[in-house]
Amino acid sequence: MALPALSSSGVKFRRVLAHFPQELSLAFAYGSGVFRQAGASAGPGENNMLDFVFAVDDSVTWHMMNLLKNRSHYSFLKVFGPKQISNVQSYGAGIYYNTLVPCNGRMIKYGVISTDTLIDDLLHWKTLYVAGRLQKPVKILTQNENSKLQAALVSNLKSAVTAAFLMLPESFSEEDLYMQIAGLSYSGDFRMIIGEDRLKVQNIVKPNVPHFQKLYSNILQDCPQVVYKHHLGRLEIDKSPEGQFTQLMALPRTLQQKITSLVDPPGKNRDVEEILLQVAHDPDCGFVVHQGAKKSITYSMKKLYKMTKGWLKKTS
């Protein structure tokens, strides 16, 4: 799953990693400091913040060691100790960020997430916060031999392809596919509609199509429901009700739940399989899936805000 990022960048990232406790199940760098983006932020630039995510098996122990090495990275929460920091980490998307950290002459930010929380998000898209980042090219810096984590990383990519297939027409380009995948985790983000950068998804995908290909080509070649014309950069998928039902049944649990809640009237309580079969026969199947994804992300963002607000009240 490791991808080549910008030339000569590996040493730079590993030098950053050397500043932290090494008990990591997974560490990756992502964003415009790693991969080129089109538009105003084109090129990695030496001024772009470097973004990292560290997955750890034991959050309390890792924060304890990191407080000894890098106490200045933490906000006022450091006075409460590693256990309370880990409690805060468990809120919302299950990730704790230290931001605006000077390191090796660059500004960085890094998020810490437990391995179990990451695996849950990869498999079920409970928040799609970190899983969404891992559906786009990232620079893997270290990864241990946790077979459950490895399987979940692959499952997340397959789920992204499946969801994108359901929202695309029968024939489309590779770039269309990667645009759909890259947009999944932004579905419910109002910043993608107004304000921040309406072209952000396009800016991510266009300069990085080769990286997306390396991430997804094996999955596409092995998928029985798609004709992958690699030399033409085109794909054709099965849009029959039977094909769409198979894809719907393969979606992550959280997305299935949001789709069924959109379609099934309150109190009816039909079986999930029955509801998804109905959706598979619906001419607007792709729209229903998109609305389910949007509802799922919007719910996750609201939950993150609500839980964080609740914690701040407790500590004030």
TrEMBL record:
Q: Which organism is it from?
A: Calidris pygmaea (Spoon-billed sandpiper)
Which chain positions lie within coiled-coil regions?
Answer: none
- What catalytic activity is recorded? a 1,2-diacyl-sn-glycero-3-phosphate + CTP + H(+) = a CDP-1,2-diacyl-sn-glycerol + diphosphate
The pathway it acts in is:
Phospholipid metabolism; CDP-diacylglycerol biosynthesis; CDP-diacylglycerol from sn-glycerol 3-phosphate: step 3/3; Lipid metabolism
GO CC field: mitochondrial inner membrane
Q: According to the UniProt entry, what is the EC number of this protein?
A: 2.7.7.41
Role according to the record: Catalyzes the conversion of phosphatidic acid (PA) to CDP-diacylglycerol (CDP-DAG), an essential intermediate in the synthesis of phosphatidylglycerol, cardiolipin and phosphatidylinositol.
Q: Which cofactor does it need?
A: Mg(2+)
Q: What keywords would UniProt list here?
A: Lipid biosynthesis, Lipid metabolism, Magnesium, Membrane, Mitochondrion, Mitochondrion inner membrane, Nucleotidyltransferase, Phospholipid biosynthesis, Phospholipid metabolism, Transferase
Top class in the EC scheme: transferase
Q: What is this protein called?
A: Phosphatidate cytidylyltransferase, mitochondrial
GO BP field: cardiolipin biosynthetic process; CDP-diacylglycerol biosynthetic process
What taxonomic lineage is listed for the species of origin? Answer: Eukaryota, Metazoa, Chordata, Craniata, Vertebrata
**Protein localization:** Mitochondrion inner membrane
Q: How does it sit in the membrane?
A: Peripheral membrane protein
Kindly name one Pfam family recorded for this protein: Tam41_Mmp37
